[in-house]
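I have been asked to look over a protein record a colleague put together. Alongside the sequence sits a line of tokens, each denoting a local backbone shape. Please read both lines and tell me whether the tokens look consistent with the sequence. Take the sequence as given and treat only the tokens as open to question. I have pasted the whole thing underneath without changing anything:
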Amino acid sequence: MPRYTVHVRGEWLAVPCKDGKLSVGWLGREAVRRYMKNKPDNGGFASVDEVHFLVRRCKGLGLLDNEDLLEVALEDNEFVEVVIEGDVMSPDFIPSQPEGVFLYSKYREPEKYIALDGDSLSTEDLVNLGKGRYKIKLTSTAEKKVQQSREVIDSIIKEKTGVGKPLSPERCRMLLALRINVLAKGYSGISLETLKQVIEVFNASCLSYVPEKGTVGASGDLAPLSHLALGLIGEGKMWSPKSGWADAKYVLEAHGLKPVVLKPKEGLALINGTQMITSLGCEAVERASAIARQADIVAALTLEVLKGTTKAFDTDIHAVRPHRGQIEVAFRFRSLLDSDHHPSEIAESHRFCDRVQDAYTLRCCPQVHGVVNDTIAFVKDIITTELNSATDNPALDYLAIGVHELAAISERRIERLCNPSLSELPAFLVAEGGLNSGFMIAHCTAAALVSENKALCHPSSVDSLSTSAATEDHVSMGGWAARKALRVIEHVEQVLAIELLAACQGIEFLRPLKTTTPLEKVYDLVRSVVRPWIKDRFMAPDIEAAHRLLLEQKVWEVAAPYIEKYRMEHIPESRPLSPTAFSLESLRKNSVTIPESDDL
């Protein structure tokens, strides 16, 4: 059954349509009727019939004819705006779907459950809960703990003072799921009956309006968690795939649920915690992990285009400084670039060139990318522990600083791809350079994102302010640390998307030569959504398409089977060594004494 999301005077309403033969005018009237139903004064209208309106698409603001059939004029899950006669729209307002709602535009109720006990939730589990892939249930042990814990707290739901735009549905689901997990530990004093009601609300995807700003990470995320609790008790606004944005009481009623009636001492149980910081931290660490893996693949493709050598990735070199992340990144480069395992015509074309070594941005990828991997692993370990307890934010400051390096080195590789004196390719990767600017402005965009990240990487944990009449006189500013870490990671993804497009464009100028099989698969993936540049065109949709491939881990999915196959076969060298080269391993096999030296 088609469903449309309709914007009426600041409210988003989900309107199902049982018959595609209904008209655009019917959709407008039905949206107005639902709007009036949710307003105490019927929105100032006596009846639907007296309301005169126009219907526009939110995307592009195209005006629709009220007589057109819905099945012809609109697509399923499309967002539209009902403009009521007499209303004056702000010139600064362009209606669009709420941030994150696209994740629910094709929502299907999950069938599988994740059992929460307060002790074993992982970052991956929480992100999957946020995406609506699972429902929640409690373990029997958790139920017993909750039944035994009805003391210690005082009830308050008066801290709802957050500001800013609301969390996306995905992030709000993560916040609610994590709060349930903490309550399941049995230390918060909430009754089992109330906790089960909260779980029913989560499983129905009824999500409170939670502003993203308003926590300093001191005594907990009181403001955002109070907004979360407000919807649970039937106050304020809520959103669900079925109802859209509406009054919480109506949303709960539409799903056959009743507002939670708080028992004595249950208020603080719902709002005292740091789940806002931790849930955003989980998303940050999972996205950082995904982009770090794919950064190796993008960089390997760039190295091929720039005709670099793989000798810098040989096992012996990295065995001397055996940092775990560095060794893993070097291995991934070997698995993608090994000409013996995956013959590369591009590599063979310059095997015996006179170049001595590549720039740092190419040959030092294992060292730079490797420490990012180590940073992510460190922070993920902390966040996983905090998932089942409390949280603090210096780890998220550390994550932002570490992941930023992926964008910083990627931007330098984009420069090498675009600069004809460094790449031996056409300037800015486009033919007829005098007429076309190619990747010139895309490189500027990458540089701007890297520059912005430098400011965002300033640690929020060094900027404490005293609150609560000086009783909370040293606070972590953890909410801001989590939000800016996500912004840094998004910028990193976008910079790497630009590098991915630039590397694939560079391949065009090396044809008919082919690269290794796994990198050809990556090239084919990109070309399935973005065509080559023959002359200048609007590039923003192409960057967004490449960003989406990275965000959905499609680049990793096509390359991962080759990496794992290579891992199983234990191939020690990346490419045949030249007759004058040697390896530490060969010396050992021939019982040659290897001198110990700090310079090794």
Observations:
- Residues 90-105, 149-160, 574-600 have pLDDT under 50 and may be disordered.
